[in-house]
Amino acid sequence: MISAKELQLAKNSLWVLAARLGAQAALALFTILIARRLGSAGFGEYAFIASAVFIGNMLTTFGTDMLLIREIAARRDFSQLLPSLSLQLSFSIVLIVIAWVLPALPGQSAAGWQALKIYSLSLLPFAFFTVSSSVLRGLQQMDRYASLNLSTSLIQLAATYAFIKAGSSVVTLAWLLLAVQVAAAILAGWLCGDQFPNFHPMPLSLHQFQPVLPLAALSILGILYQRLGILLVTFWLGAVATGWFSAALRVVEFAKTAHLAVFTVLYPQMANSQDQLKDFRLVWLVLLAGSLTATLGIFLLASLLILILFGAEYSAAIPVLRLLAWMLVPFTVSTSLTLAFVAANREKPILIALTASLLTLILLNFLWLPRFGILGVGWAMLLAECLQAGMLLVQYPKKSPVVTTEVVHGD
How many CA atoms lie within 13 A of 56 on its CB side? Predict the structure, then answer.
């Protein structure tokens, strides 16, 4: 029998899914547009700077987004808003300065490194965007949150179509993306501005940042784990190979759209749940079935997808896409259990699994990347993802006494 929580989750998920599908469609068109207009080398440079800034954003966020969502969803506690924003802005300034003073890294052209410096400035509006969107998610204002992401994707697509032409420089793209992020931050602030009319800022202190440390460690490890492949391909094989690998990875990321929509809605509700696996059992089964279906579809249609979306220039991405498609099933397992642990304020099992899988990923990449190229990176990512999912499955019964208690009472 479907529970009230699952019905509410389904309603919110459908709304977010509809908007996320629109946003992902816009993002897919944006990706295809720049992949074709910049070429494989230019697209590889973009993939590198996007990954680097994405890592920087997660470093500056320092886990405060998950903390805000959890505290707002569970207790309507807004006291961490100003400390979170201040922390993110401070870290952003430090990383921007580092990006502007460092020399170009291996595998990057002068234009690519200049683009990275420009796009690093977006860490400042990213901070405002992150805090505002976390408020919307914590209050379960999923209509506004979904509208925010859809609007941002559409603005980015329209601006790219208008200003990025064949032969354009990645530097021009960096300026455009910076402007889009500023617009997104303004929109996010406007959408959540009326959600806490009686909010009074709390004084800043280091003590306020202590609850963030476990979540910060998770965020940093998680983003390094996700983006390590692109960084290593860039340093080792150059921009063209990065473009091929990124094309395959983007298709897999597009396939996660429905899952990410459900996870977005699911996390705030799990913060109020006593047994995350039991209360949302049907959700987990549907997500697993969906991931297996998507895996088989991508595996069988990999050649067609790459040639239609990106063109013959990216044909080297086809075998990598077939391999990366199998990550969807362990991704669903590991992400579901990660949310369950974080919602229950139990971060240690995730830290153990993430650390082990990250070290495995690094070791396998150094063993296989020089010998097998981007296909070796794909195998390393798949095995590391399976390891992470397996370790979380093993640890969940041992590290979740709330679940054990509920099962005993239910019997």
Answer: 28
Q: Taking 50 as the threshold, does the pLDDT of residue 341 lie above it?
A: yes
Angle subtended at Cα 28 by Cα 231 and Cα 96, rounded to the nearest 5 degrees: 40
Query: pLDDT per residue over 370-400, tens digit each?
Result: 999 999 999 999 999 999 999 998 887 644 4
- Quick check: is 199 in a domain? no
**CA dist., res. 313 & res. 308, Å (int):** 11
Contact of 35 with 99, CB cutoff 8 Å: no
Q: Residue 192 and residue 153: Cα distance in Å, rounded?
A: 18
Contacts for 44 with CB less than 8 Å, ≥ 6 apart: 234, 238, 239, 240, 241, 242, 243, 244, 246
In contact, 400 and 336? CB cutoff 8 Å: no
Cβ atoms of 244 and 114 closer than 8 Å = no
Give residue 267's domain range. Answer: 4-191+210-410
User: pTM for the full model?
Assistant: 0.73
The answer to which of 28-32, 139-143, 373-377, 407-411 has the lowest mean pLDDT is: 407-411
SS3 letters across 129-178: HHHHHHHHHHCCCHHHHHHHHHHHHHHHHHHHHHHCCCCCCHHHHHHHHH
Q: What is the mean pLDDT of residues 168-197?
A: 87
State the maximum Cα–Cα separation within the chain, in Å, rounded to a whole number. Answer: 66
142-150: average pLDDT:
82
Length of the chain: 411
